[in-house]
Amino acid sequence: MPSADKMAVRYPMGYKWTMDFIDNALIANLAALFALIPAALAAFRAQPARDAAFWWLSAVAFAGPLAWSITHISGMWPTGLSAALWIMIAACMALYLVLSRWMESVWRLAPLLLPYLCLVGVVATIWEEAPGRPLQMAALPAWIEAHIALSVLTYALLTLAAVAGTAALLRERALKTKHPTRLTAQLPAIADAERMQVRLLIVTEIMLGLGLVSGIAVQIYETGGMLAFNHKILLSVGAFVVIGALLIAHFRTGVRGRRISRMVLLAYLLVTLGYPGVKFVTDVLLA
């Protein structure tokens, strides 16, 4: 008769790790991710409109990341890569909904913005287990909390500006090649996208300037009076200079089109490297 050991069920390699990984955190990530997908798919419907379906699906897309953020903040500020990405997604959706209500044509950014946020959500879900060091909110001075809020808002503003710039690039390319696609037909007109981009950049520059000042203050507070120009400050200063130069050139010389859109994408890259990019290196690659 076979022994008990021989009769034991032997699971494939990695089975236990997989079962351990399927926990409440993964379910929360998947729920937030799935909340984004219907709105992303609806952005490509045959006749897109800012109708009831748009508002309901966009509200669901906002509610998922928002719920994730609220349940994970509760008394402490999470600093891991996944948390940073989900909070960024929630901020982008909140800003997108507000601007879609008050600014014409912003809602037409959905075919670019929502798939991008879905991809960011996939990254956040994959690296949900990346370590972080949560900060106790009760122990943080109010001005540090204000700096965190400024940073999140600035990144959301710059994200929408970069998406608007990408929309202008795609529309301009379709116009020059005389080969419009279904995607480009659903995006804002070139003039609308550029106008939207410039307005968002103006607010972003103001928020980024305030964020730099508060960020330097935070660093002085943490180091006891020593100011070190680390990667975050240098990349943020670089983005501030790029956006400032871009706005000056736009209002003085009327620069527009591909030049301004590419510079916006460069600024977005600098800010992304300064925060999510650094978190990916420290929390994932060097963990």
Q: Could you explain the architecture of this structure?
A:
It is a single chain. With 287 residues, the protein is mostly helical. The protein has 2 domains: 11-137, Up-down Bundle (Four Helix Bundle (Hemerythrin (Met), subunit A)); 140-287, no CATH class. It is 76% helix and 1% strand. The protein has helices at residues 4-7, 15-21, 24-42, 52-73, 81-102, 110-126, 142-177, 182-186, 190-223, 231-253, 258-285; strands spanning 76-77, 135-136. Helix 5 packs across helix 7 (142-177), helix 7 packs across helix 11 and helix 10 (231-253) packs antiparallel against helix 11. The radius of gyration is 22 Å and the shape is globular.
Task: Give the key terms.
1% strand; mainly alpha; 76% helix; two-stranded antiparallel sheet; disordered N terminus; 11 helices; single chain; 287 residues; Four Helix Bundle (Hemerythrin (Met), subunit A)
Which structural category fits the helices and strands? mainly alpha
Total discrete domains: 2
Distance between the termini: 48 Å
Number of helices: 11
SSE sequence, one letter per element? HHHHEHHEHHHHH
